[in-house]
Specification:
By secondary structure, this protein is of the alpha/beta class. The protein contains 13 helices and 17 strands. α2 packs parallel to α5, α3 packs parallel to α4 and α6 packs antiparallel against α7.
Amino acid sequence: MTRRRIRIAVLQFAHETVTFLPNDTTREDFIYPGSPASGEALLATDPKGYMGGFVQVAREYDDVELIGITSPLWPRTGTGSGWVTQDAYEHFLGVMIAELQAQPKLDGVYLALHGALAVRGVPRPEADIARRVREVVGKDVFLSATFDPHGNEDEAFLQQADMAFCVKYFPHYDMHLQGERAARMLVRAIRGSFKPVPRTLRIPIIAPTVVMWTGASPWSDLIQRALIWEAREPDVFVNVFFGFPWSDVPDAGMGLQVLTHDDPELADRVIRDMADWIWRRRDALLNTVKIHPMRDGVALAREAVAAGKAPVLLADYSDRSGYATWLLQEIVAQKLERTLIATIASPDVIRSVLAASAKPGDPFEAEIGGAFDESAGEPVRISGTVRSVDATRGKGNEWVCVSFGNGNVLVLSPYLVQIVEPSELWQLGLQPDEFDVIAIKSRAHFRRGFDDSGFAPTILLVEPPQPFMGTVRLEALSYENLSLTDYYPYGNPSFPPAG
């Protein structure tokens, strides 16, 4: 029997917005070679991520046609920029809506989202995207989406869309898997073999992302609880949103979504069980990692090297701009040796190196980092030599390596970079046996390459002396769109809610 051809539009609009940063994310930040993308170019982005998983499974069906709608990719600033401007949001969403309107009848829409997109004047942008797509395609078209667990999502999104699939692990190992699920269940819904019944429940807990590592208890236990429900009940899907406290939005904090196949009672039972588990373990969930002051962390790194427990990883979890020099200051002050610092955002310095056509071995002297805002600290003057200039990422995204001190190397990048795998460093021409200490900017993604792999015997999370925008002390942040006292542990909210 020949099946009716299925037409699915594919859109993307994603950003993890740090609203406390002073630099807005503008229309221009989303425009660079390759972005926006449409058609096959959009469908080919991120082959190991959400998009890759969705496209792979969708194309296993001979009767499914994918239409790549012109979409912005992640902004060139990564996560190192603040509020997305209304101009940027309306421009790109307007392009997407216009293309959807011009399409012949669709059966489904896939939205590659994040959950922590924050737009000036739009309280819940992901829900707004779903609403505006729904207005164009009609109530009979199924909408499916993928999300990052660091999303701030309440019931508003699934009031407009039919399905959502959220990554479970931090680091995010299962993006491709969730993209696969989004495709498979979207096709099933279109064909009528899956009738999605969603439930959503907000949990009044807000926490810094550094405590959310799912490689250890109790966060690993939380994810296991979700996996158990998915294993024991056919067609049950559990999304755990950890929340993203650096977006000052009204729906920040933890949340749950559950999908079942036409079984509202089961959906209620699963979400109630998950919520009760989280609330019972709330203290344990918020107290999972040891964080050292910068000075102590650098001293402990020296002791670990002396004790033969190298390489040591120093992870500055708090830097949200990429410009912060607090850890570099301590490394210089304590005369740490054989240390690799990767990276510090220094676009102006990189431009000056490129303008001078500097070559390996040329002298280098410049003030590095700082000056972005108070969270970045003071610039640090580094005197050394240019080790390398890496231009493999394209014009405007060059990295510069500088040798200084006794065996130290500083890597400069144009924006905030989280080093996830050691191989990202060795691709710069650096060698593992050159360094006893590696200092990076990361909260938990580094676990993938440095911890889970066993690469670094000693791992030290460090923070600056003051509670800046990446702090675990969220009370230091100037929230305007939410009240911390509505959330545990800053208040005593009522839970479970009535009904």
